[in-house]
Automatic annotation (TrEMBL):
Pfam hit, one: GST_N_3
UniProt feature coiled coil, ranges: none
Entry GO MF terms: glutathione transferase activity; maleylacetoacetate isomerase activity
Protein species of origin: bacterium (Candidatus Blackallbacteria) CG17_big_fil_post_rev_8_21_14_2_50_48_46
PANTHER family: GLUTATHIONE S-TRANSFERASE YFCF, MALEYLACETOACETATE ISOMERASE
Residue span, GST C-terminal domain: 83-206
Residue spans crossing the bilayer: none
GO biological processes: glutathione metabolic process; L-phenylalanine catabolic process
Gene3D superfamilies: 1.20.1050.10, Glutaredoxin (3.40.30.10)
Residues covered by the GST N-terminal domain: 1-78
Protein name: Glutathione S-transferase
Alphabetical UniProt keywords: Transferase
InterPro entries hit by this protein: Glutathione-S-Trfase_C-like, Glutathione-S-Trfase_C_sf, Glutathione_S-Trfase, Glutathione_S-Trfase_N, Thioredoxin-like_sf
Length: 208
């Protein structure tokens, strides 16, 4: 494969891709977009979001599109294990998080919809949305095993762990999400987590 460059910044969507790259043991270089000249990133990713993956001279935006590309070009170890039904469930969970839960976390979306909110009010709105969404998500998780879907690590574990971490950082109370806490503990003990996750658990300074 050509040289891979991940354009990144602190944030959830970039963590998804970092985790997938580490899990597949694909080598890459990373560029923090803050280190680029003003305006340069807009030419790399016209949507204005991170991450973007550069493959040779080609650019792919959108974390899930990037991860699907990595899965196709480097299928083992897979992020979509199991039966067709289990793979559909993995995609269902990822889709819910990516298209319903996550967008409200974006400053650009909140600034557009609720320009009157200050940072504290934005944080509390984000937490409220995350709280509601995690409650809806819980019954779809851990149905046939200890991983998010079934008995093997998948992309669903990555997306759920990253958004759950985000929820705690925005003020969601861990005590109200004991199933998520127990699952994160389980995940953290797995070799796959220790060798590929871009953050340790519990996150330093985060109340549990
Ligand atoms: N659907 C996009 C979302 C990416 C995204 O939301 N990135 C955030 C950081 S986690 C961002 O760039 N936010 C900047 C903003 O809100 O303007 C993806 O999956 O890549």
């Amino acid at each position: 494969m050509s040289q891979l460059t991940l354009y990144t910044a602190a944030g959830n969507a970039a963590e998804r891709v970092l985790w997938a790259l580490n899990y597949k043991e694909i080598s890459y270089q990373m560029i923090e977009i803050e280190s680029l000249p003003v305006g340069a990133y807009a030419r790399i990713n016209p949507y204005g979001y991170v991450p973007t993956l550069k493959i040779g001279e080609e650019l792919i935006a959108e974390s899930l599109a990037i991860i699907e590309f990595l899965e196709e070009t480097c299928p083992e170890p897979t992020l979509f294990p199991g039966t067709a039904l289990e793979r559909a469930r993995i995609r269902e969970i990822c889709e819910f998080i990516n298209s319903t839960v996550h967008p409200v976390q974006n400053r650009s979306v909140l600034n557009f919809l609720r320009p009157e909110l200050d940072s504290a009010a934005m944080k509390s709105l984000r937490a409220e949305w995350l709280h509601r969404c995690l409650q809806k998500l819980a019954p779809r998780l851990w149905q046939h095993g200890n991983f998010a879907v079934g008995t093997a690590f998948s992309l669903a574990d990555i997306l759920v762990a990253v958004i759950y971490k985000r929820a705690l950082s925005q003020g969601v109370q861990a005590q109200e999400f004991q199933e998520f806490e127990a699952w994160m503990q389980y995940l953290f003990q797995q070799e796959v987590y220790r060798r590929s996750a871009p953050f340790s658990w519990p996150v330093k300074g985060q109340a549990i």
